């Protein structure tokens, strides 16, 4: 296993407020790893410690390669153009930038616009273009699609996927569970400054106890006993919740046979990762 990033027992406090408490995780080369958590969980502080922006109290950080960083916010001057911003950062790194780079990242159309004139999506693309200068091995993205519309989100998602195909390692901080489920190989869940889970998205599904919803339309209103957990009922429509879909289905079939009722329609819904995650961190 080739390690790209490793954080060991990282802690950070502001006065008596413990923001990070002995967190540890490893990011493997070529993977997309997400730090997932609600606002205030410690995601941005972790990235700032990693990037050298924020001093940490204890712990160790290993970075195995060149780092490119896209911050959640920017302090670029309002009147600087997109091209001037890129050229400024390129000059600091003694890099040459050609038109091919602008075309490749899809930013050529707004290069002459001043920063304050850019849409949120264009700003995100500009920040990403700056982060990718010099072809870094490891790319750190802090809430890269926050505030974007569907088109903007999809555009950034496609770029992240393209970077992965090029062998880049990506550390992504997000509170968007749908985004994480779509993009990431593994997830580290941060809750109140502690890592409470590390694994693949499907492992998170398995780890978090949750219930399936089962929507059934009967031919007539059935007589139900206490073994069924009913969420709602309207005439012959019933919505049940269950942690064991197979047992509940068998019980429903048995009930219909005993009461001479037909099942007219049946649908199952598995809770999304977002629903499970929110239940877990709130518990």
From TrEMBL:
SUPFAM superfamilies: P-loop containing nucleoside triphosphate hydrolases. Residues 5-217 form the ABC transporter domain. It comes from Thomasclavelia ramosa. Keywords: ATP-binding, Nucleotide-binding, Transport. The keyword ATP-binding applies. Belongs to the ABC transporter superfamily. One of its GO terms (molecular function) is ATP hydrolysis activity. This is ABC transporter ATP-binding protein. It comes from the Bacteria. InterPro entries: AAA+_ATPase, ABC_transporter-like_ATP-bd, ABC_transporter_ATP-binding, P-loop_NTPase.
